[in-house]
Amino acid sequence: MGSPSFGPAVSAPGASCRLKPSPTAHALRLDALQVRDLAALHAVLDQLPEPPWDVEVHGDDLHLLETLRAANFAPYCSGTLFARPAEGLIAPRTPGIEIVAYDNGWAEAFTRAEHDAMEGLAAYGELGSPSGYEWGAGQGSFRIARTPSGELVGFAHADLPDGMIDWCGVVPAFRGKGIGRQLLAAVAEDVVSQRGTHLLAFAEDGTNAAGFLTRLGFRPKGRRTLMIARAGDTPGTDTAGT
Ligand SMILES: CC(C)(COP(=O)(O)OP(=O)(O)OC[C@H]1O[C@@H](n2cnc3c(N)ncnc32)[C@H](O)[C@@H]1OP(=O)(O)O)[C@@H](O)C(=O)NCCC(=O)NCCS
Fold first, then answer.
1. To test the ligand 1 pocket, which listed residue (131, 165, 208, 212) has its Cβ within 8 A of the most ligand atoms?
2. CA of 144 to the centre of ligand 1 (A)
3. Which residues 6+ apart lie within 8 Å of 137 measured at CB?
4. What spacing in Å lies between the alpha carbon of 210 and ligand 1's midpoint?
5. What does pTM read for this prediction?
6. What is the number of the ligand 1 atom nearest to the C-alpha of 179?
7. N or C: which end of the chain has fewer CB within 10 A?
8. Hey, what domains does the chain have and what are their CATH numbers?
9. Cα distance between residue 69 and residue 146, in whole Å
10. Which residues touch 195 (CB under 8 Å, ≥6 apart)?
11. Residue 217: is its pLDDT beyond 50?
């Protein structure tokens, strides 16, 4: 996502990437993947644990897109990467809503809220339910919004310190009340406290995320396509035509 890569490096002649487990560990992210051709890609894949493997491809990198397709990776989600400075995101308090750090003891309530908020998103369809975020307390910045009765109505998770917001939603009945803004403002505070400088977020096509992020001062940074090789898929071995 244009963020720094800190995972272990894997390389082969003509190919390299860094491994970055997703917070849910549903797929291994091949971050900053560069490949000369299909053979070089296979030389990297041969070094990895079993799929699923997940790659984010920049909109203009048709070579990588086609090479991944030839290795049986399939696109599962397209959208736009947005960014803004972490400093200066202001959010008035929504009456009756408390923003707190996530606790794994809320796993069941989180899974219900996540279903209500994320139903229909391709990224959620790929993760399935439960997504794995329900055990994510203490990993990066993970904030939730809840009502006085303890109902969990929104959530935001981001990597620290790079500020990549990888999971954020508000249940439909509580949208339009400033809760999403408050959640991202709380995440921004965590990013700044870890000396991060920016917030990054992916707006999936066909959702309301782009309008929301634009309103919060985010700016588009480019198109992205997410590709996945799922467990049980056999990576293509035909190196012809690359
Ligand atoms: C995107 C989402 C998190 C927004 O949550 P929310 O609580 O309704 O957002 P807020 O009420 O805090 O809205 C904040 C601002 O964005 C604006 N906004 C919200 N949705 C918008 C849209 N679709 N288009 C334009 N502006 C929008 C609001 O008017 C508000 O403006 P203001 O603060 O200047 O008054 C929520 O709609 C959602 O869960 N969507 C599905 C999941 C998703 O797409 N997640 C990815 C998020 S990056």
1. 212
2. 15
3. 101, 102, 103, 104
4. 9
5. 0.91
6. 7
7. C
8. 9-79+224-229 (no CATH), 84-221 (3.40.630.30)
9. 42
10. 161
11. yes
